[in-house]
Amino acid sequence: MKASAGGAVVLTTLVAVVSSAAIYDKGLTSSARVGLAEDTLVLSFQGVTPARRSGAPHHLLLSLAFPGHTRLALALDRAHAQVVLESVINGETVTQKVRAPPVKPRVVVRSLVVEINQGSALATIYVNCRLMGSIHLPKAPRDMAAQHDDDLRVYRERNVEASVDWNISVMELLEKLGCPADGDTNEFMAQANEVYTYRRGDIPINHEDEASNKLVKTLAELIETIKDLQIEIQTQREETALLRDALLNCEACKPGRLGSHSGR
Prior knowledge:
Blueprint: H1 5-21, E1 23-24, H2 26-35, E2 40-48, E3 59-66, E4 70-77, E5 82-89, E6 92-99, E7 109-117, E8 122-127, E9 130-136, H3 141-145, E10 153-156, E11 161-166, H4 170-176, E12 196-198, E13 205-206, H5 213-248
Parallel strand pairs: 9-12
Antiparallel strand pairs: 1-10, 2-7, 2-11, 3-4, 3-10, 4-5, 5-6, 7-8, 8-9, 12-13
Helix pairs in contact: 1-5
Protein name: Thrombospondin/cartilage oligomeric matrix protein coiled-coil domain-containing protein
Signal peptide: 1-20
Pfam families: COMP
C-alpha cells in the first residue's frame, strides 16, 4: 500500500482537527473500563478554566467513546450557565442540560462532579460543592458498552484535570475536592425547590415556578429553536466522530507504517 503526498496532507490535517479538541487518556480509559461493571460511576473535575477558543459553543471536558458510533460526552455551556450531557447512541444524538449558575464565561469552575447510577441511568451533577440537579440519561455507560467494555476509549480536553471513580461516596469525594464537610449551610446540598430534574426530551421542572405557564411556553419555544440549530450542526459533529473512528482503526496510520513507504 502506498501513501500519496496529497493523502499525507489530508491525514495530517485530520489528526490536527481531532487532537485539537480532546486527547486519548489511557489511565482514564483503564479506570472507566473497570467502573463500567459497578453500580455507580463518578466523573470529577478540578479547576476547569475557560476554553481558549471562545467561539466554541460548548467546552468539551470528557467523552466516553464506545463501538458503533455510541458515546457519552460531558461539556460546559458557559454562555448559558449549563452543564451539558450529550448521548450518541448508534449515531443518534440526545443533548440534555442542567442549569448551573456557577458556570460562567471567564470564570474557573472549582469542582464538577457527575454521579451516574447505572441501574436507573440517573446522572446527578454537583458544581462548586452544590447540587445543581439530575438527568435521566437515555442509557447508562454500562448499557452503552453492550458487553464491549474493552473497546471503550476515554478522551479528555487536554487542559482538564479529570478522574473516574466507582462506588464511592459523593460526600467523601466532594470533601477531597475541597468542599466543606459540615456547617450550618450544608454546602453539599441545595434546597428542594432549587433542584431541577431533567427527563428525556422534557422541559426542566422548576418546582418553585410550576404555575408560570407563560414561562413554560417560552422555554418550550426556545428549546424547539435550539433543536433546529442542533440539527444543522449535527452533521458536522458526526463527520468528526467518523473521522476519529477511521483514524483509530486505520492500519496504515499506526506508528511505523507510514515510515515504511518511500513515497515513490
